[in-house]
Amino acid sequence: MISPLVAVTGASGAVGSRVAARLARTGVPVRLLGRDPSRLPRLPGTVTAPPAPYGDGEAMHRALDGAHTLFLVSAHESPDRVMEHTTAVDAALAAGVERIVYVSFLGAAPDATFTFARDHWHTEAHIRMTGVRHTFLRDSWYLAAIPAMTGTDGILRGPGGEGRVSAVSHEDIADSASAVLLDEGRDHDGATYDLTGPEAFTLADAAAELSRCTGRTIRYVPETREEAYASRAHYGAEDWEVSGWVTSYEAIAAGELDTVSDSVPTLTGRPARNLATFLQENPDSYRHLLPDS
Hints:
Layout: E1 6-8, H1 14-26, E2 30-32, E3 46-48, H2 57-64, E4 69-72, H3 81-94, E5 99-105, H4 115-130, E6 133-139, H5 145-148, E7 155-158, E8 164-165, H6 170-182, E9 192-195, E10 201-202, H7 203-214, E11 219-222, H8 225-231, H9 239-253, H10 263-268, H11 275-281
Parallel strand pairs: 1-2, 1-4, 2-3, 4-5, 5-6, 6-9, 7-11
Antiparallel strand pairs: 8-10
């Protein structure tokens, strides 16, 4: 019996590429979608769809024709992201997709402190409204973001206060998503899984762990909201984008990202990675912080 076709969006990104590789290894038919097909991975047993931007309903419809399940990785942050998501969802249903597995965010809510988490809530609401079979994977902060947001000066700064975050690895997200996608039953229908690490830690804790790995002192410097906007002004980003950066820290301070879930071990059959394990497995993630870098 031939398995139903799974369409994987964002297949050139950190989550989508990992999920696509895992599905390909099982022999499940996979179609890779992206805005630029030339950037999509070349994986045995997969096919590449023509360019399919989320906001182009006709292109998405063509790309999804014949697919049974859509793995929908959220679009790049933009003022129009909810519209892009709803266009992609509607195109999927018009193309005959029967199931959507959507990558959302921990604590998604219409009044979430983290402004981008509000986009996820509105997307979830639209998917629910369509009546399509669905599963939501609400990822926490990425563990990879911890060293990435630490400057070469050895400072991790932001308005996170003394709040805690249950950051999760891309590998654990991909393993969890693959488990859901490969289960052709209905056990995951209507389910929302919080994908988190095994512990919630403060940003000061994170700095201490980075210090142990790098052999130099890494410090967390709490900022006020005003200081956070000022310290990021030199990037020249638009207001909505800077607001997203700042409010991601404020969500930590507000206690909205300290949920610790057992979804990763439940779905994968193994423990979720903590920060120490992630850093041990990914030394390149903090190479810019090493004393001789």
